[in-house]
Amino acid sequence: xxxxxxxxxxxxxxxxxxxxxxxTQDMRHNAMYxxxxxxxxxxxxxxxxxxxxxxxxGEVPDGYSVSRANTDDFPLTLASAVPSQTSVYFCASSVxxxxxxxxxxxxxxxxxxx
Amino acid sequence: GQNIDQPTEMTATEGAIVQxxxxxxxxxFNGLFWYQQHAGEAPTFLSYNVLDGLEEKGRFSSFLxxxxxxxxxxxxxxxxxxxxxYLCAVRDNDYKLSFGAGTTVTVRA
Lengths: 114, 109
Fold this sequence. Notes:
Order of helices and strands of chain A: EEEEEEEEEEE
Radius of gyration of chain A: 13 Å
Mean pLDDT of chain B: 95
Number of helices of chain B: 0
Largest sheet of chain B: 6 strands, mixed
Largest interface: A-B, 24 and 20 residues
Shape of chain B: globular
Distance between the termini of chain B: 40 Å
Low-confidence stretches of chain B: none
Number of helices of chain A: 0
Distance between the termini of chain A: 32 Å
Order of helices and strands of chain B: EEEEEEEEEEE
Largest sheet of chain A: 7 strands, mixed
Oligomer: heterodimer
Radius of gyration of chain B: 13 Å
Structural class of chain A: mainly beta
């Protein structure tokens, strides 16, 4: 693994089903983030984690949950998917120190909820 | 919260210069970022400004005026591969990013 990976690449899901999007990074970054990207709205923060064992809510957290059991993994769970959760989901990570603290993005998961 | 505005689309000719403006109104400011995103791909980091002034990095430059809540990204000597969306993002005091909707730049031959 090099950098940050996400799985699956794409998924079609029936409404009401449970789904977990996976995100793994091997850069030993402290902070991780989940965004959704919708046409005309840009990237919006769903949840974040500043360090293993802690999580926080972003701009659009409803209907989503996360966990951060270790440094490398940050799964995003949709407990009961709805069509409005159709989107492209990006996971990102950063060192979480001072200065630029650039966020690095995974390749994304395209999710369609029918 | 953050309110970040940038134009939706811009078109320019290969070899030309394009300037993408970004204005923001924030409840806290701890840096401004520009990301590039090609269609179907992940955003990639381009530039970072935290102090007023111009940051130059090859063909790309970014400018910040904190008092005016204004930034621009300048792309010089445009190439076809520069066709992409350019995302302006503001970081708050909790180190979280808020993104504008993005500007799609189309470079024509």
